[in-house]
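Sanity check. The docking grid for magnesium ion depends on where the pocket ends up, so I'm generating a full predicted complex first rather than guessing from homology. Inputs follow.
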Amino acid sequence: VASDDLTLADVGEFALIDVLAQVFVASARPSVEVGLGDDAAVLAAPSGRLVVAVDQMIEGRHFRRDWSSAHDVGRKAAARAMSDIAAMGAVPTALLVALAAPGSLPLAWARELAEGLATEASVVGASVVGGDTAESPTLVVSVTAFGDSGDRALVTRSGARPGDGVFLAGRLGRAAAGLTVLSRGHRQPKSVVAAHRTPEPPYAAGVAAAAASATSMIDLSDGLLADARHIATASGVVIDLDRSLLGGDDDVEAMARNFGLDVWEWVLVGGEDYGLLATFAPEAVVPAAFRPIGRVSELREGREGPVLVDGATHRGAGGHEHFMPPS
Ligand SMILES: [Mg+2]
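Predicted complex below; grid placement will be based on this.
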């Protein structure tokens, strides 16, 4: 195996694939019927259907190498794809990874990326079962996640009904706060920086929500208001969020005060928290990971919506940092 001081251009594609495969084979689960090393992987699909999602992370857009380690990027790339599987109420089982990278990328970075991917996959018992590499001027990590729903009904975005409660598993505003910290040249506080670098989706809560007959569900990638809008639009309803139930994160509130920023921009608009937003009928026994944050109501002509905060459309101050400058 080539030395870690070398770049991808020094060692070539086959050596790169060897390095990645060593990491993935070492962490693979026995449930994979045919894994790495053949033309394609073979997966069991016990429920008779596959739940599939893909996600890309592009350097300069979604991550910066001076802000996140290779291990962080690997963990986040896997988490983002597996969060989508969890948001359907399924359990992630396998990942495919496509890496496009410049020849100047250190081999050690690629190995650490693979270790991060394998680490996050192992959180839910999934394996990396294959992938592809290509030379590219831009570093891109693409992850396709496969999941299994068992005997549970899958949860889509379109089933929310007037009278349902709106519930959240996870925290709000921490990843946006972390991104602001990093973009202003700081590395502290660690808790919010970690929320940006390595989100921890509540995978088990997605399964629990499906088992408890959630009527709709989505993972929070674009920000609470935007993701709530996805459910409201798909379901043809209004989602009314209760501001008094959304705050309460002392770290995030203190940081917003220190920076002179509006904490609600982080909580309502900031993305990438990777919690789960779900709706449940009034009679449902809502899993403990979820807390109530609002209600679903009827879409009516002439009324504001489809997402309201305390009964009104949120008019943000703007100025949140959705996009990073190129590194
Ligand atoms: Mg999603």
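Relevant for the grid: The chain has ten helices and twelve strands.
Also worth noting: The first helix runs from residue 8 to 11.
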